[in-house]
Amino acid sequence: MTVNRASARYEGFGKEGKGSITTKSGVLDKQPYGFGTRFEGLPGTNPEELIAAAHAACFTMALSFGLARAGYAGDTLETSAAVTLDQIDGGFEISQSALTLVAKVPGIGADKFAAIAKEAEMNCPVSKLLDCEITLEHSLES
C-alpha cells in the first residue's frame, strides 16, 4: 500500500481568504490558492488544475504499462487533461475530465492502440476515483 500526503491551509473566509497547498514530496511548498487562483486567473494553483495534472499523469503511466504488457517498445506519450468545474444548483461540481493524447508507438495499429488507450482510460486509479464524464481523444504519430 502506498500513502501520499498533502495539506492545505486557508486564512480568512470566502473570496477574501487565501490558502496554500503543500505536498509531502515538497514539489508544492506553500503554493498559493484561493478564489482568485481558481476563478480569476491569478497566479497560483487550484484543485481542478491539480486533479487535471494527476489524471494526465496517471492515465499516461497506465497506458505506458499497458503498451509494455502488449509487447510494444516505447517512444512518447503526451497527454493533457482539461477538468471542468460547473456551477450547479448553487454549488459546484466537477463535470468532466477531457484527456487529449498524442502518441508515437512504433508498429502498433490504430485499432489496437485505441483498445489499449481505452483500457488505460477506464482503469487508471484517478479515472476510477473521478465521478464525472471522462473523454479521450487520441492520435498516433508515425
TrEMBL record:
For this protein, the record's SUPFAM superfamilies field holds:
OsmC-like
Query: Which top-rank group of organisms is this from?
Result: Bacteria
Q: Which InterPro entries match?
A: KH_dom-like_a/b, OsmC/Ohr_fam, OsmC/Ohrsf, OsmC_Ohr_Peroxiredoxin, Peroxiredoxin_OsmC
Biological process terms in GO annotation: response to oxidative stress
Bilayer-crossing regions: none
**Signal peptide feature range:** none
Q: Which GO terms describe its molecular function?
A: peroxidase activity
Cite the Pfam families for this sequence.
OsmC (PF02566)
Protein name, as recorded: OsmC family peroxiredoxin
